[in-house]
Amino acid sequence: MASAKTKTLWFCTNCGNEYSKWMGRCPACGEWNTMAEREVVTGSSKATPLTSASGSARKPMRLKDVSTTVEDRVSLGSAEVDRLLGGGIVKGSLVLMGGEPGIGKSTLSLQLPLHCPALKTLYVTGEESVKQVKMRADRLGGSSENCLILSETDMSAILKEAEETAPDLMIVDSVQTMFCQHIDSTAGSVSQIKEVAAQLLRFAKSTGVPVILIGHITKEGTIAGPKILEHIVDVVLQFEGENRGAYRVLRSIKNRFGSTSELAVFEMTGSGLREVANPSEMLIPMHEAGLSGTAISAMLDGNRPFLFEVQALVSSAVYGTAQRSATGFDVRRLNMLLAVLERRAGFKLGQKDVFLNMAGGLRITDPACDLAVICAVLSSTFDYAIPSDVCFAGEVGLSGEIRPVSQAARRAVEAARLGFNRIFVSSYTHFDQKPEGIEVVKVADIPALVRALFK
Ligand code: TYD
Ligand code: MG
Asked: 135 phi and psi, to 5 degrees?
């Protein structure tokens, strides 16, 4: 091991970035007069290996000699969360759960131990008092003798407590409120967040206790500002959903022990989050058939096909400039689709207000939704109701062509299962086997779509 040396570094007390010399203004966060001097030890044991507690030097191994035992997993008592993690949480893993404030991270993370009493859980909260957690727990129903609550923000106290308690699961809410005393910046700064995560990772790996770490997502949509945590942790789960809608999607965006194309849907109710095991049936709202401005999209988000409703309202612009607004859908993508409709198919929408809504408050990123968006807009424009047994799956290109989407067959099968009779897809879609029980209508471009649908 290299011998320890000390050197002087300057670091910003606001954001935690380090510099080799003093500066009046921190180039990273833009704050003035925040530089502080600190002696740091280099080449010391700071970079202790994560798994070698013995300190013995490790030798390379032949790949074929490495034993591949299945990871030891613990069930969290929630079928959806277990599936998302790849069959339960892996012992000694660090899972980051991110999401905007108010989305339901604390609710879910408290609900898990409450509904799984066999699991001895240490729930550390830096945001709420023990009383507040108790009030929330009462609301969620279910109780557990085995759920220990600790209201603390100092990492050394937390880790000491965790070692004494030796829980089966530890939950830390949230990374932004925790701090390590030996770092001179405030809780929530880059260097604190990094160190808190590194300490928890070391704890998880050395004791085998799985840790769920909660992180708020900043306005830019990244967890804790720069994506500093995502490569440190083993699994990143992200909570999404429009705040006003009742539905929430928990998505795995990184998983060292499973697939990342998984998602779980929850509904926020008066007594906590309810698992929505079959999203399709929930996401198609019940209203009378024959309403214009709605179209059903056969979605594939993650690995699971489901169907949901796209709603559009097109009306004459009252003010000089037309308004475009989209809930749960990228408004730039909507503008592009409207431009394609105008230029490639001759629909004059420049003087129209267009409002788009994804039913259920979901945020949709699957490009296969384009076709349903276009159909909902056209349906509202002509006040023509699309038959209720029709659904759509296709991406729309800039020249108005309809492009094939991934796993079209699975989408068609799901649509058939839910009683749909026709699905519109791109003419370039290839099916290994023709989907049963549903008529597949292939369209090449928007004019062809209009002829087939609004004939
Ligand atoms: P919360 O878990 O506190 O969000 P986060 O930790 O991500 O910031 O959830 C907050 C919202 O959920 C809050 O607005 C209240 C609502 N809620 C319910 O609707 N039902 C419930 O049973 C609970 C506990 C919360
Ligand atoms: Mg919270």
From this structure: -65, -40
- How is residue 385 annotated by DSSP? P
Give me the residues paired with residue 312 across strands: 356
Report helix, strand and coil shares of the chain as percent, to nearest 5. 25, 30, 45
Q: How many helices (H) and strands (E) are present in the chain, helices listed first? A: 10, 23
What is the rounded CA–CA span in Å between residue 396 and residue 365?
Answer: 14
Question: Which ligand neighbours the alpha carbon of 100 most closely?
Answer: 1
Amino acid at 6: T
Q: What is the distance in A from the centroid of ligand 2 to the CA of 238?
A: 14
Please give the average per-residue pLDDT across 43-59, as a whole number. Answer: 53
DSSP codes, 262-315: -EEEEEEETTEEEEES-HHHHHS----TT-TTEEEEEEEETTEEEEEEEEEEEE
pTM exceeds 0.85: no
In the sheet that 324-327 helps form, which strands lie side by side, from edge to edge? 324-327, 352-358, 304-316, 294-301, 390-392, 422-426, 439-443
Q: Which amino acid appears at position 416 of this protein?
A: A
Count CA atoms closer than 13 A to 384's CA, side-chain side: 11
* Gap from CA of 268 to ligand 1 centroid (Å): 8
Torsion sign over Cα 368, 277, 102, 284: positive
| Per-residue pLDDT band at 19 (split at 50, 70, 90) | confident
Are 144 and 123 within 8 A, CB to CB?
Answer: no
Model confidence pLDDT, tens digit, residues 218-229: 655 554 444 678
- Please name the residue that has the structure tokens 């989907």: 435
Contact 183, 195 (CB under 8 A): yes
Please check whether residue 288 is in contact with residue 116, taking contact to mean a CB–CB distance below 8 angstroms.
Answer: no
Return the amino acid letter for 140.
Answer: L
In the numeric block, which tokens belong to residue 189?
């700064």
Give the tens place of pLDDT for each residue, 33-43: 878 777 666 65
Residues with CB under 6 A from ligand 1: 99, 101-107, 136, 139-140, 268, 270-272
* Closest-lying ligand 1 atom to the alpha carbon of residue 174: 6
Which amino acid does the sequence have at 61?
M
User: Can you tell me the mean pLDDT for 324-333?
Assistant: 92
pLDDT band at 47 (very low <50, low <70, confident <90, very high): very low
- pLDDT given for residue 282 in this prediction: 65
Stated as kind and residue range, the H or E segment containing 149 is: strand 147-151
**Cα 335 to ligand 1 centroid, rounded to whole Å:** 33
What spacing in Å lies between the alpha carbon of 138 and ligand 2's midpoint? 16
Give CA separation, 69 vs 72, 82, 254, in Å.
9, 20, 22
pLDDT at 243 over 70: no
Q: What is the pLDDT of residues 369-409, one digit of tens each?
A: 999 999 999 999 999 999 988 999 999 999 999 999 988 99
